[in-house]
Amino acid sequence: MSGGGDSVGGYGGLYHGHDDPADQLITALDHDGGGFFLQDTVSPCAGGGSTPYASIADYLKGFLDPAGLAAHFGSDDAPPPCRLGGGADDGVVVKQEMVVQLSGGSRRDDDVDGQLAGAALVAPANSSVLSSSSCEAGAGADDDEEEPPRRRCGKKGRIEGEEEQEEEEGEADDDAADRNCKIRSNKENGNNKKTRGENKAREPRVAFMTKSEVDHLEDGYRWRKYGQKAVKNSTYPRSYYRCTAALCGVKKRVERSQQDPSTVITTYEGQHTHPSPVGLFRGGALMLSAVAGGFRRPDLLTIDDYYAGTPPSSFLPLLTPGGIGGGGGGLLHPSI
DNA sequence: CGAGTTTGACCCGCGC
DNA sequence: GCGCGGGTCAAACTCG
């Protein structure tokens, strides 16, 4: 593990280098396809990059900032800022590397995730879809924010938006209601044809690859697990979490890389509509906890910091200026 | 007792 | 049309 990204998966940290399958992955996020283009982007720490974005920092900022998005997308229907949480850290991570991957949240983001998760980081085949709606989804996400992000059917009480009229019908037919709700839920979630292909791409997503011994990294927000599924071609299950905050529909999926079990792949979807419960976050900051040793570290590393080129000195950027085939770099705490 | 987790079932889209 | 895989639900269960 001290190899820092050179272990099994060979990746970790910012993807960089054309030889790395991961590079293809990033390529798959081609902006042309409506997704994001991070190819060849290098952390400022590593000194440079040559991409549509000056740096991932730029990219992320664009992702987080409507203005930036407008710039990137060349239109004013830029999605709203996407805030992804993070902050507190109580994890038991010995080393952390991360890969930031953003996508527009199209249906096929799943493919990306799959690629990340599964053995194959190479999957350009699906890339086209992968990106379909990019952040304009974000624009849609705006609406999502206004509306109850997630519905809860059944006993727990239903959070409803558009279906209120139906709800009026009464609780007598709870079962039926639940069932309908389920169906609706799926549809709302973009599982119906329409949304799947087009509107589904509502929630922007960001995937992180983190070297961690714990699956669920503390990121400053509170999450409730709502499901777990076995992943095909992977011995590790994928867990589904939802932000517990009311009206916050942010979801996250956590799974271990099949290739490198020490790597946890966390995919955030959506925007938090509330501040971090732990209050460790800066507004708009995209943060990933710098977990270590099961205690809170003062030297939390934020993705903002990192990509802004101002990582805490205690973190070592693993990127090599020229890029390395086996994967870019990442963040490695010296204490490891 | 409330909040969170587990887990089997269900639904849907997609590929064949 | 069918089967598969992913995503979600919700009852039951666990934990603090």
Automatic annotation (TrEMBL):
Q: Which SMART domains match?
A: WRKY
- Compositionally skewed regions (Low complexity) per UniProt: 131-140
Name the species this protein comes from: Miscanthus lutarioriparius
A GO cellular component entry from the record = nucleus
**Entry keyword set:** DNA-binding, Nucleus, Transcription, Transcription regulation
Question: Which residues does the annotated region (Disordered) include?
Answer: 131-203
State where composition is biased (Acidic residues).
161-176
Q: Organism's domain of life?
A: Eukaryota
Q: Does the keyword Zinc apply?
A: no
Q: Where is the composition biased (Basic and acidic residues)?
A: 177-203
Q: Which InterPro entries would you find in this protein's record? A: WRKY_dom, WRKY_dom_sf, WRKY_plant
The chain positions of domain WRKY read 212-277
Asked if Transmembrane helix is a keyword of the record, the answer is no
Q: Which PANTHER family does the annotation name?
A: OS05G0583000 PROTEIN, WRKY TRANSCRIPTION FACTOR PROTEIN 1-RELATED
Entry protein name: WRKY domain-containing protein
Spell out the molecular function terms from Gene Ontology.
DNA-binding transcription factor activity; sequence-specific DNA binding
Pfam families with a match to the protein in the record: WRKY (PF03106)
Q: List where in the cell it is found.
A: Nucleus
